[in-house]
Request: fold
Amino acid sequence: MTTRLITSLQQRLHQLEVRGLRRRRRTTDSPCAPQVQVDGHTKLAFCSNDYLGLAAHPQVIAALREGASRYGAGSGASHLISGHSRAHALLEERLAEFMAPDIEAARTLTFCTGYLANLAILSALTDRDTDLFCEQLNHASLIDGARLSRASVQVYPHGAVDQLAVMLAASRSPGKMVVTDSVFSMDGDLAPLAALLALCEQHDAWLLVDDAHGFGVLGQHGRGALEHAGIRSQRLIYMGTLGKAAGVGGAFVAAHESVIEWLLQRARPYIYSTATPPALAHALLTSIDLIAGTEGVHRRTHLRNLIGEFRSGLQLQHWHCLLSETPIQPVIIGGNDETMAAAASLYERGYWVGAIRPPTVPVGTGRLRITLSAAHSRDEVAQLVGAFNGLQA
Ligand SMILES: *Cc1c(COP(=O)(O)O)cnc(C)c1O
Reply:
């Protein structure tokens, strides 16, 4: 006899299936790279966030091995107990030095994931007396962090600096924070960071920037959205992730040293979670060197060229592409079933692209999310463009 609890879950799962919302995973047997072994077939993948192609970079892999032989497999405890290794300490210092041009008195703190870093910032730096101003298209981790914070939340429409200005002017709270993705993860466009910072200066608010998709990718030196926007301030709280362009895993917050010290003292997602394996931090030192060095410059140039070639190659009269200058290139399809069908036809032709449906994106805006990487060749991008154009014919 199945219990009522299980039956009820089974009914809800069936509803997801009927509405075209059931999600399924594919299993890979090769490193994250353009050519992947997935569910027993070779496909050309355009769906990872490995924007610089560092996830399978020989030097990063070698550093991970070296880190494991030096520090072992696991950290064994949270940072405040005994899990904070020399590798973590060096990574914090390296990241602080790297981000110093964009943040005054920069210090950094590393986290297991970007999701946890966002929960940490929002829960530790805001309270019931804070007004949070959240961009409409913010990532789920920022939304969840806002819920956890107990602050009062106001959502401003996508990119609407004018409306945000009105909302800030009306706020009587002693604490204010504006919260935004820098690169919107499902649309690929950029937040107007300079205008947002100007408003925050005017209204004495924090500006939390989630640069998951900008770190390593944007800016001449790869420092991300702040470098790209040319802004610098004490009120910036910068969250960068290390599992996307940096190719490994984890995240960091860069901010004024007092902000970081407060997170270290008070942020529960930092305090009550086991530190990442030190080998990851050790490997990340190599990733940051690659991002910051000439190889990073070359990889970003190649990536920018691929973005240009993808956009100019696609027969735009046939496709509803969002205007994006980042490696995230969404093609809007519409309904859930149509989106899945378009992804399936590309998959049959040998191309693996992301199919994104609600609740990740608004109802009726199901889309293919194509992500480009410096690991792709021009020829591979040309093949994808050919497949797209053929799909329509
Ligand atoms: C991926 C992502 C995160 C979460 O980072 P993880 O390290 O994967 O947990 C946070 N914000 C945005 C905008 C993201 O795209």
Remarks:
- The two ends are 53 Å apart (CA to CA).
- The mean pLDDT is 96.
